């Protein structure tokens, strides 16, 4: 995977690729059965799958996914950001969803196969883009009763991507989704099950029409604490008496974002205080935070300048800023520098090393 001889294709306009599906050369696919466990896998080219109509993936949503990215360094090497963390998280979700776990060596092999088959789709160094990798695991065999499938499929496909939100790291307006609860107190919110995501299509489309590209969920039980954005986790910064504090929820109902845990580490390295705790919405109403952002593999760091709840809108900072704030910019620069290979990878986050 350190092939510096395959340059990015010149068939894509790398500055404007956005976040959308595109066909690539091929993807890794594995099949699991109770008798044989995971097979040795294959590299496939047809994006259409042959899946049983009675599969649990299609009938009961027995499915989970991950998102991670491969980057090109200045000297042309290609490396993936923290794949071991995504592998661990996929196995936690798989166990919760009665699906077979993926041994780490298969997870990494699948990532490697897919990246290697698509080296020209890893965007150029410095373009801001990456090859977004999407591991998928689902029940593909028939089962009409409420039980796990007799066969599972594990896939890793890739898509060259730029920014998820069209303005990239420019601040956006967010709104609270009031009429839908994303994550029950003892429910599925902390797992990356596909079923957590489709139900937000309707409220997020409604929000987009009202001018809010990004939507935030509160806790389902009391609607008083910040949960997470529909696409990503919530992080906030405050500056007081020369001390910068990063505040982020880390409870039972939210996804353990690999971006969030990485930003927490970078913040600590910068000497900032970190508070991983429940965040009452009243702290936003009272203007306690100087900066707020959404963070995730796809969203990276997306600064938020206002948060609307019903008729009321709360400014984060001036509420009119057009650039990322100084605090998140410091985190963003270091995070990107590690991914792009511009600074030493002292934490061994990039794979292969
Ligand atoms: C990711 O950041 O990888 C995600 O899974 C977000 C997705 C909902 C677009």
Automatic annotation (TrEMBL):
Asked if the keyword DNA-binding belongs to this entry, the reply reads no
Keyword list, A-Z: Aminotransferase, Pyridoxal phosphate, Transferase
- Pfam families given in the database record: Aminotran_4 (PF01063)
- Which GO terms fall under molecular function for this chain's record? branched-chain-amino-acid transaminase activity
Recorded hits in InterPro entries, A to Z, give: Aminotrans_IV (IPR001544), Aminotransferase-like (IPR036038), B_amino_transII (IPR005786), BCAT-like_C (IPR043132), BCAT-like_N (IPR043131), BCAT_family (IPR033939)
Q: Name the needed cofactors.
A: pyridoxal 5'-phosphate
Per the UniProt record, the lineage of the source organism begins with:
Eukaryota, Fungi, Fungi incertae sedis, Mucoromycota, Mucoromycotina
> Positions modified as N6-(pyridoxal phosphate)lysine?
192
Q: What is this protein called?
A: Branched-chain amino acid aminotransferase
Q: Report the record's Gene Ontology biological process terms.
A: branched-chain amino acid metabolic process
- TM stretches of this protein: none
Give the UniProt family note: Belongs to the class-IV pyridoxal-phosphate-dependent aminotransferase family.
């Amino acid at each position: 995977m350190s092939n510096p001889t395959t340059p990015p294709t010149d068939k894509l306009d790398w500055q404007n690729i956005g976040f959308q599906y595109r066909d690539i050369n091929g993807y890794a696919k594995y099949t699991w059965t109770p008798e044989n466990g995971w097979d040795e896998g294959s590299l496939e080219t047809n994006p259409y799958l042959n899946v049983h109509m009675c599969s649990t993936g299609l009938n009961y949503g027995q499915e989970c996914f991950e998102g991670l990215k491969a980057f090109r360094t200045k000297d042309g090497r290609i490396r993936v950001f923290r794949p071991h963390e995504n592998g661990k998280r996929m196995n936690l979700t798989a166990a919760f969803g009665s699906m077979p776990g993926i041994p780490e060596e298969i997870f990494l092999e699948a990532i490697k196969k897919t990246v290697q088959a698509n080296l020209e789709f890893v965007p150029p160094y410095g373009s801001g883009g990456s090859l977004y990798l999407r591991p998928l695991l689902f029940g593909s065999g028939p089962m009409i009763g409420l039980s796990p499938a007799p066969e599972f499929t594990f896939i890793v496909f890739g898509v060259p991507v730029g920014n998820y939100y069209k303005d990239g790291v420019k601040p956006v307006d967010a709104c609270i989704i009031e009429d839908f609860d994303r994550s029950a107190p003892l429910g599925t919110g902390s797992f990356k099950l596909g079923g957590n995501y489709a139900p937000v299509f309707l409220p997020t489309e409604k929000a987009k029409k009202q001018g809010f590209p990004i939507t935030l969920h509160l806790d389902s039980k009391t609607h008083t604490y910040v949960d997470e954005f529909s696409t990503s986790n919530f992080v906030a910064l405050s500056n007081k008496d020369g001390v910068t504090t990063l505040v982020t929820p880390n409870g039972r109902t939210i996804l353990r974002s690999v971006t969030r845990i990485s930003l927490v580490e970078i913040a600590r390295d910068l000497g900032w205080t970190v508070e991983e705790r429940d965040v009452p919405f009243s702290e936003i109403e009272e203007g306690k935070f100087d900066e707020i952002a959404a963070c995730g593999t796809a969203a990276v760091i997306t600064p938020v300048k206002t948060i609307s709840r019903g008729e009321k809108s709360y400014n984060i900072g001036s509420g009119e800023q057009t650039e990322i704030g100084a605090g998140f910019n410091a985190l963003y620069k270091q995070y990107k520098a590690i991914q792009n290979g511009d600074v030493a990878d002292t934490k061994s986050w990039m794979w292969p090393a």
